Amino acid sequence: MTETVGSVVAKDFRTAEVLEKYGIDFCCGGNVPLTQACREKGIDIESLRRELEEAGARPQDRSQNYDAWDLPFLADYIKNQHHSYLKENIPTIAAYADKIAQVHGENHPEVVMIAQIFKKVAMDMAQHLKSEEEQLFPAIKRLTELHEQGAEPAGDEIAKLKAVLAELGHEHDEVGAAVHEIRRLARNYTVPDDVCNTFMVTYEKLKEFEDDLHKHVHLENNILFPKAAKL
Q1: Model pTM?
Q2: pLDDT greater than 60 at residue 33
């Protein structure tokens, strides 16, 4: 079986820090073989493996052993941790992005593009979270319960679940590409010298959003979705 970037982090979340250091995408790009990711980044695979092994040798926080959690518990964690973060912070970040676009857009046209991209991300994520909370997570809990009881689900339930998983996975790819474009436009969130504090705070919040999204999408793409597809 080909070792992918996502499977490495799914087995041990401590390795995420190493991959992030080299700019290797383990969430939306989690299906890429580790050897291919290294080749594309010009990284020596054996050196990377040694760093991954060193990360795996450090004491493990049991709260990060996500791959061992049952699916309903993981779904609840994603909702309570990551969905709550998004619902609380997306409106604020969007407002900040609009503000710096209005104030600094003439000298820094990239922030106008960033505000436009993030506005679409905000709209898309609202529907995405709704789909997960109203369709995916309840389906996972029901099918898990049936599996534990030794009962067979209706055929259309499995088909609907797989259709939802495919659509949500596609949406992950889209939001991942949008966030990568924001990072590119923001030059890795480098704050220019001639801007206000709101500009700095906006970039900090955008980076925080990206960091949270990486973990959120990783938990779904590399752990929750593949296991749910086998129910």
Answers
A1: 0.85
A2: yes
